[in-house]
Design brief:
alpha/beta, 8-stranded parallel beta sheet, 8 strands
Length: 295
């Protein structure tokens, strides 16, 4: 596949009141995001509560997104799990339903060293038929995939990209230095989209795109057009929306913000908890500041 770039939406997973995958709302969300200028879709990431779904639910999500997308943008299916066997099974399902690539975290819960991390991703890459993107999110997995491992994977053409979710500019620069010319380096930290582009990164995979896809896309589109000031302004305008989706325990704030702008995807899945009344007021305040809802 050609080198990925742009703003990719890590989709919130739409749920019914009884916590089943809401297929119809998923289809509506796909169209909302693509119509908003998003360059790719990433179902079953952190924003999508991936770890709380079983194999069949995951397949339903990816299949629905692929079908509704109908080739308009790439679909990057999340396949993360501590078990390598499960990752490979999820990857096979993603391939079967027509996803364009897969995205995998390191094997969270149990710790492993650099060789273990390399072997994990090498096995995934060699045993599945789709391009692989590493999902490097140490705050959640408690495992950091260091630049040396990413460099080895990139040099052996085992991966096509990495999503790096951490507010650490030094590490971002290290990744860009060792692998930025070989693979797509995306930031997963919403407020670092412009910064990543400025230093040669490929774009961003950011939860805020679920709420404001047009504005999020503008950061990339204006940058590509060479209007750095317009890109910078779009990044700054995202700030209150980024604050809004960060309220409470993620992704409760994200789903509440989507509800408030009229794009409800249901509540978070048990055992996650929705926002309190006071937290909802905070989200509403940020959205009024962003002018996504009326004052």
């Amino acid at each position: 596949m050609k080198k990925l770039e742009g703003i990719i939406a890590p989709m919130a997973t739409a749920l019914t009141q009884d916590e089943k995958v809401d297929v119809n709302t998923t289809r509506t969300l796909v169209d909302f995001l693509i119509d908003g200028g998003i360059d790719g879709l990433f179902p079953l990431g952190t924003s999508g509560e991936f770890a709380l779904f079983d194999k069949e639910e995951r397949k339903t999500v990816v299949e629905t997104v692929v079908d509704q997308t109908n080739g308009r943008v790439p679909v990057l299916a999340g396949v993360s799990d501590p078990s390598l066997e499960n990752v490979l099974a999820f990857a096979k399902d993603a391939e079967d339903v027509g996803a364009d690539a897969i995205v995998a975290t390191p094997p969270y819960y149990y710790a492993t060293g650099q060789d273990g991390l390399f072997n994990h991703f090498e096995t995934i890459a060699r045993k599945n038929g789709l391009p692989l993107i590493v999902y490097n999110i140490p705050e959640w997995t408690h495992l950091f995939v260091p630049p040396t491992v990413i460099q080895r994977l990139a040099e052996k053409h085992l991966i096509v990209g990495m999503k790096y979710t951490e507010y650490n500019l030094l590490n971002l620069l290290r990744f860009l230095k060792v692998a930025g010319k070989q693979i797509s380096i995306f930031t997963g930290s919403d407020a670092m989209t412009f910064t990543n582009l400025e230093f040669g990164g490929s774009g961003a995979v950011i939860g805020v795109a679920n709420v404001a896809p047009k504005l999020a896309s503008r950061v990339f589109d204006e940058f590509k057009r060479g209007d750095l000031e317009a890109s910078r302004k779009a990044q700054l305008k995202l700030l209150p929306i980024i604050e809004a989706i960060s309220v409470g325990r993620f992704p409760a704030g994200l789903k509440e913000a989507m509800r408030m702008i009229g794009k409800s995807v249901g509540n978070v899945k048990t055992p996650l908890q929705s926002l309190t009344g006071e937290e909802r007021k905070i989200v509403a305040g940020y959205l009024r500041e962003s002018e996504l809802i009326k004052a």
